[in-house]
């Protein structure tokens, strides 16, 4: 029968198991091999006494715990939970626990959470910076950090992200091969590194085909559906109207699909739309969305592996991992339809 009172030290375990304190310590920490007989006696004592390890107290002795901290900008964005899941699976497999903080893309909240996490002596930190992040001014030499998905300017340590430039280039090539020449872009906040590289990749594709990307056809937005809707409304009311839109993430693309529908336009007949992320829901939009696939799970998994390697060896060279992307062609894109000439006023309402 379990003792209802939890022991405060390992001495009670040692007395119960009739072994030395050192033997209990070796079993708990796995530092030295212990005979199977003694190991079983210690484990039986732990079970009988209902002992639970105080990770924070252990961390204070070692100046580090087996906890990893993770900061993400928006738990409501369906791309980020995949990253968290990938990181958590690797952390758990290697005996670490992941503490998650959602910053709401608020730079002040991000700093507050960073300081809170430090008080728990995490072994390392996985960080997806907020929009307007001030982290680079607040990083300490003692911080063990891997940046994920977004890499702040001036960071020369470990980071992991998808091939944003290459993925956007594929999106541009796809629209060009279909015959589109009036192509618009809805970007995220343009000071973010991944947004800038996506725009650069898309520009590169158009430049190779001698297609100009008009500045008016570039609309900046927040990474959410409503912001994508507003930006798309502006684009779809322009003259001449673009025949295709590349949205820098799938939430923006979903907003563009909704905008086209509300303006009485058909996708892809009147407007082709391409997204970026390949979130699960985009296979079920009307029509299913052509998009650039990046694996959030793989990003999180890779980032956590790199962080654990850094924890084990602080002298290794920085790792800058760029993971591959792939365009998934579905039904939201097609060749632009050339309007038929008509003598009736207003016959071509989308000209």
What can you tell me about this protein's structure?
The protein has eleven helices and twelve strands. By secondary structure, it is α/β, with parallel strands linked by helices. The strands form two sheets. It has a six-stranded parallel β-sheet, sandwiched between helices. A six-stranded mixed β-sheet has the order 7-6-8-9-10-12, with helices on both faces. It is elongated, with a radius of gyration of 27 Å. The termini are far apart.
Number of helices: 11
- What is the name of the CATH class of the largest domain? Alpha Beta
Number of strands: 12
Structural class: alpha/beta
Q: Enumerate the strands of the largest sheet in spatial order, edge to edge or round the barrel.
A: 2-1-3-4-5-11
Global mean pLDDT: 89
Do you know the CATH topology of the largest domain?
A: Rossmann fold
What's the number of structural domains?
A: 3
Helix content: 25-40%
What would you call the shape?
Answer: elongated
| N-to-C span | 81 Å
**For the record, what is the CATH homologous superfamily label of the largest domain?**
Response regulator
Low-confidence stretches: 342-351
CATH architectural group of the largest domain: 3-Layer(aba) Sandwich
